[in-house]
Amino acid sequence: MEKGIRQFGAIGQVGGAFVCDNRGEVIVSSSPAVLATVTMNTIGREVGRAFFALEAAHRAARRLDFRFDSWRLLAQDIGDAVLFVVCEPDVDMALVRMTADVVAAAWEQDPRVRKRLDARRSDREQLINVSSLDHSALQSWTLIQSR
Predict the structure, then answer these.
(1) Which of 35, 116, 127, 132 is the most exposed place for a label (fewest CB within 10 A)?
(2) How many Å apart are CA 92 and CA 15, to the nearest integer?
(3) Helix, strand, or coil here: 92?
(4) How buried is 2 (Cβ within 10 angstroms: 0-12 exposed, 13-18 middle, 19+ buried)?
């Protein structure tokens, strides 16, 4: 997996990449890490929730592209995990997406990577704890599930 992560370093305006399991916990990150581990875990959990909510609403997505003033984040669902690439705003996102596709395809064929991901397998559903949702969030979740 580390070799795949290093491929993003060759792309201009890419700060780094990391992979989180479906619980949002970091499996691997570029070296040096582009963000603090706690930040990567938080991003992993929230994006996992977003992918799960989209799936529950019958609007499943494979990629999410978040744009901020000073950075950009590509999140690509790879099934048992999510690949994240942290970039500058003006990055060639087509090149980043193509690299993500190539890396994900290589990981799918690599028995060592599959074993590593299988060991961390979990469902994203556990990221949603209905009992901990406030009233507004519960209404939103109920609406999503009713679609």
Answers:
(1) 132
(2) 13
(3) coil
(4) exposed
